[in-house]
Specification:
The radius of gyration is 21 Å and the shape is elongated. The protein contains 3 helices and no strands. The longest helix has 42 residues, at 37-78. The relative contact order is 0.07. 82% of the residues lie in helices and 0% in strands.
Length: 79
């Protein structure tokens, strides 16, 4: 873990912990260096949306499995 006094290392670690790869982290710092805060905010917002979409996709898969299990259980009880 980076020391809190090393802001760049802390921010890098945080972005990597959020799932960004090395190229995406570099891209974020380039936007910071260029003071392109609106582009950085959009980039991070878009990434967050992708993460949420992934959660929804997996949640839907889990619900499908739960429904299948429910139907299977019901069909076995009838016999």
């Amino acid at each position: 873990m980076a020391l809190a006094t090393d802001r760049i290392a802390v921010m890098t670690e945080n972005l990597k912990d959020a799932g960004l790869d090395g190229n995406e982290v570099t891209e974020c710092f380039e936007m910071l260096d260029n003071q392109n805060f609106s582009a950085l905010q959009k980039f991070l917002s878009d990434y967050r949306t992708r993460l949420l979409n992934g959660i929804h996709e997996y949640n839907n898969r889990i619900e499908c499995l739960d429904y299948f299990t429910y139907i299977l259980k019901k069909s076995l009880e009838v016999k």
